[in-house]
Design the sequence.
């Protein structure tokens, strides 16, 4: 596994968990949040051991603060930065990262009462930031 700085690890971890949070907040609901967070976390367990190590290291991810638009922009920017970091340091992990984040976002959207249009839109934004069509 490539050597990542603490900042790079934080970026990758925050991007993955931020993407899940972005989809979850697209269709808010107190009880849905619990189902969705469990579904997203479970999806991350399918990542390669190297990606799991990146996602687990360093404790809780740093999620942005601010109004809804600022949070969305910050999360999507961190997703783009995470892809760039992986392309540079762990090119073998880029596709796996993309796949596990998309899968986690889909599982979050499906976790409570089906997929809402706002969740579909949020997933599209995440896919765009990941470079996935």
Sequence:
């Amino acid at each position: 596994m490539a050597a990542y700085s603490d900042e790079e690890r934080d970026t990758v971890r925050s991007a993955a968990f931020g993407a899940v949070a972005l989809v979850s907040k697209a269709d808010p609901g107190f009880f849905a949040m619990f189902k969705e967070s469990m579904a997203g976390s479970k999806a991350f367990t399918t990542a390669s051991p190297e990606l799991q190590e990146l996602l687990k290291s360093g404790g809780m991810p740093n999620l942005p603060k601010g109004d809804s638009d600022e949070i969305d922009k910050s999360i999507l920017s961190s997703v783009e930065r995470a892809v760039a970091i992986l392309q540079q340091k762990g090119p073998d992990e880029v596709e796996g990262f993309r796949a596990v984040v998309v899968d986690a976002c889909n599982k979050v959207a499906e976790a409570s009462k089906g997929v809402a249009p706002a969740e579909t839109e949020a997933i599209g934004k995440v896919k765009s930031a990941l470079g996935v069509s």
